[in-house]
Amino acid sequence: MLGAVRDHARARGQGGRPLRALAVAASLAVVVPLLAALFSSARAGAGATALRNADAQAAGRELRLADVRLAPRAQGPALAPPAARLALRPPARAAIVVDARDGSPLFAFHADRRLPIASATKLMTALIARERLPLDRTLPAVSYRAAPAESVLGLAPGERMKVRDLLAATLLQSANDAAATLAVAVAGSQRRFVALMNRRARALGLRHTRFGNPIGLDAPGAGSTARELAQLARAVLRDRFLARVVAMPQAVLASGARRRIVRNRNDLVRRYPWVEGVKTGHTAGAGYVLVSAARGALGQRVVAVVLGAPNERLRDEHSLALLRFALARFQRLAVLDPRRPRAVAAEASARALVAPARALSLVLRRDQRARVVLRVERPLRGPLPRAARVGRFAVLVDGRPVAAVPAVLSRPLASTGTFASLSRRLGSGLTLLVLAAMLTLAVAALRATRPRRAPRPGVDTGR
Predict the structure, then answer these.
(1) Known binding site: residues?
(2) For the chain, which has fewer Cβ within 10 Å, the N-terminal or C-terminal residue?
């Protein structure tokens, strides 16, 4: 082929100049873009490697206060200052306050000491009745002979009342006759109901809890711990109806022989709108008992238990101190923000900006740590439109997955191009060989089109 080009050039003589110019231009048009693509691909490859390394480091990084933005704190209960921890030693035999979500203790004092729990027993009574009886079923009241100091609703034997009203009387007024009526309706007798209570306690993992009656009167061997009583309260609060009842300052009982109004014996519910129950108790053996719950301005909920306080005032004061202290241990963290995309390496020379599809904030205890991991589920190869889903952001709290948000492109990703694709498919080494071969062909074509100079007429060469 080169010979044909040479012969054609000799035949044209001076007319071969346009052809030579055309060959030079064609050679430059082929070689220069190829060299540019090679250097761009090499530079992008190094950049992509560095970007992947940076991503690998960022993927495992914990989000601390320096890494995330704190949302403004909403108004809520007056929170205990940090020094309050020193004043939390209770005037009681045992106490604890926990995160209602997972039961993590925020403060504990003899929390595993087994003690009488008085009418806090009715939390289990109400839980079992709620699980086994329809709320609108009407039950006949059992005959109940109360001691002078006992709290009762005053039900006449055989008086008919709905389950929902009996539950309200049991939890708010701590009515022993209402609790006994629920127990007999569920199991046929109080004795069989107590067996159900102890089986349910084992199912909840309450290994140190034992019930002797459905009411909470002092009984040999009966009792629980502050830690396990908090766990039982969390189970009660997971039921929406029971959680609503224990947070009421008072309730109107529409069923029964007459209309009744029962008041919550937990004075904190009436005095503080952020307190949400849950049950009081008192006997000679147990002292003063209070299981309380509170919700903070960030939506966090905590449960406190005080066992064996000497009087109601100290029981309530210490419960308030525990609740305030615990609520102050939470903060809201802006974990994901679509306005803050993350740069990740795409194929060849592209760089993609990936952002979460929506914002995500978490309310965490101050001892918890959040970590965000970006997992790309597809090769980032253009063209891809804006908002194309390319993976997901996994959010872990203390190593446990708690949320996942789709990862999308925050701007379009352009195509990588022909030469970049060639470099991606063949690698830099083979691409360089291809470029060298094409350059050699271009130079050979250029030399083939160059005409030989003819000797000038009349010049003696000396040979």
Answers:
(1) 279
(2) C
